[in-house]
Write a structure and sequence with these properties.
Layout (H helix, E strand, L loop, with lengths): L10 E3 L5 E3 L2 E2 H8 L3 E5 H17 L6 E5 L6 H9 L3 E4 L2 H9 L7 E3 L6 H9 L4 E4 L2 H13 L4 E8 L21 E2 L4 H10 L4 E7 L11 H20 L5 E3 L17 H19 L5 E4 L3 H4 L3 E13 L3 E6 L8 H5 L5 E3 L7 E8 L8 E9 L7 E5 L19 E6 L2 E6 L4 H4 L5
Helix pairs in contact: 2-9, 5-6, 8-9
The structure holds pyridoxal-5'-phosphate.
The site of pyridoxal-5'-phosphate has 16 residues, from helix 10.
Length: 437
């Protein structure tokens, strides 16, 4: 029998054979709040955040800071927790910025990303006192200059640079290559030219550089190589333009474990090694150490999330395949449909039973691609009414959820110190039709 604690230590099994998450019985949570249900273990979120805030304080140069990449899971309570834990945030749209503001988050600690901010995005950010824009290229620097001038301010920015690093992750989340929709490349000389132009803009204050090489990064040396390329760029800029970056933002992307065969990342140890590498490269290059930013998303929230479903129908097609249908699906978790992502699935109230029934876990949408996970093992005799838990769903599930088939999105219930509370209420069918005239 596999031990769910091997996946993440917040998963345990009680004496009734029920899966517990954050120490709480998932059966009790399912009956209290209904399914499908997103659970978020707040204690685990905070623990994950502290790995970064601790490293920033203890290993990295003065003024370094960790930012929560809020696109991984964006709702008001996440911004409150980030603020309480001393993290800044990344936002990628006015919607995320608005959510942060509604939560009382200090926008001076927010960084606005995206490869295409519209003029109205930029104006909205400036009007609400966004701390930084991370400008993707020339068009954006020009737009920020123009709109900052209209507002009579000088806007702090970072420039997003593509270091040309292949992080050997999935193509859809590999973003640091020269051939990418994101950022401006060092290799082609365009990045240096962009710095030159930016330094001429009176209403834009260049604070430093940003890069983000991808997501689900496990490769030991990816961040070290990235830091090396970026610090050489910082030194080159210093020489060619007489401009010394104050901030170097190395992006997000540390991997998490969706299944037991995924590697175990020791993020704290990796960050320590990264900090030491930065110090030694800066010494070699004879430059001052810039303050570092890191932008973890997935590694903050993924293993703090778990989705509970209820089985509807079980269909066996002899000689073909077995299907177990649940009361959610690609609407609340599109990641298998999008990327073929792996997940660990449990029959949450039958944890002590042998799992010998091979089946595909599918959703309720009218779409054959509505699969949560193919070829999983569940107990024989799994039937209507049984609970299913899909683990590690805290990142890019709720934030990517849709109302396909006009199915309302689940509630988010947070678990904290043995108690639970609703952080996002369950959508109703009236909510789904609320905008229709
Ligand atoms: C998505 C993203 C992140 C977070 O990536 P994770 O893989 O979730 O850690 C950080 N920075 C930028 C610019 C991003 O686009």
């Amino acid at each position: 029998m596999t031990n769910p604690m091997d996946l993440c230590k917040n998963l345990t099994v009680n004496k009734e054979g029920h899966l517990c998450f954050g120490g709480q019985d998932t059966a009790a949570l399912a009956s209290e709040y209904g399914t499908p249900l997103y659970l978020m273990d707040e204690d685990r979120v905070r623990e994950n955040m502290r790995v970064y805030t601790h490293a920033m304080q203890n290993y990295f140069p003065a003024g370094s800071k960790a930012l929560y990449a809020s696109k991984a899971n964006s709702f008001k309570q996440m911004y409150r927790i980030a603020a309480e834990e001393g993290m800044g945030v990344d936002v990628v749209s006015c919607g995320e910025m608005y959510t942060a503001m509604q939560a009382g988050f200090d926008l001076s600690q927010a960084y606005f990303h995206s490869n295409n901010k519209t003029d109205s995005d930029i104006a909205y950010g400036i009007e609400h006192g966004i701390g930084f824009f991370v400008a993707d290229g020339t068009d954006e620097v020009d737009a920020i200059e123009r709109i900052a001038a209209q507002h009579g301010i000088r806007q702090k920015i970072l420039l997003r640079i593509t270091p040309g690093i292949d992080c050997h992750t999935y193509e859809a989340v590999n973003t640091g290559l020269v051939d990418s929709k994101f950022g401006t490349a060092i290799e082609t000389g365009q990045a240096m030219e962009l710095v030159r132009q930016t330094l001429l803009q009176p209403h834009v204050e260049l604070m430093g550089f940003h890069c983000h090489v991808g997501s689900m990064v496990f490769g030991e040396d990816v961040f070290l190589r990235t830091a090396d390329v970026m610090l050489h760029f910082v030194a080159d800029v210093n020489q060619n333009c007489g401009y010394m970056a104050q901030i170097l933002d190395l992006g997000g992307g540390y991997g998490v474990r969706y299944v037991e065969s995924d590697p175990k990342a020791d993020i704290s140890a990796s960050l320590k090694e990264l900090a030491e590498t930065i110090t030694s490269i800066c010494r070699q290059l004879n430059i001052a150490q810039p303050a570092i930013r890191m932008e973890p998303g997935r590694s903050i929230v993924a293993d703090a999330g778990l989705t509970l479903y209820t089985v509807g129908s079980v269909k066996q097609i002899p000689g073909y395949r077995n299907y177990v249908s649940i009361d959610g699906g690609m609407g609340d978790n599109p990641r298998y449909a999008l990327y073929g992502s792996k997940y660990t699935v449990y029959a949450a109230q039958r944890m002590n039973e042998e799992c010998t029934f091979t089946c595909s876990l599918v959703g309720r949408c009218c779409e054959s691609g509505d699969v949560i996970q193919p070829n999983i093992q569940l107990p024989e005799g799994i039937h209507r009414g049984d609970s299913i838990a899909v683990c590690t769903t805290g990142a890019y599930n709720y934030s990517m959820a849709s109302n396909y088939n006009r199915i309302p999105r689940p509630a988010i219930v947070m678990l904290r110190g043995g108690s639970s509370y609703v952080a996002v209420r369950r959508e109703t069918i009236a909510d789904v039709a609320a905008l229709d005239e």
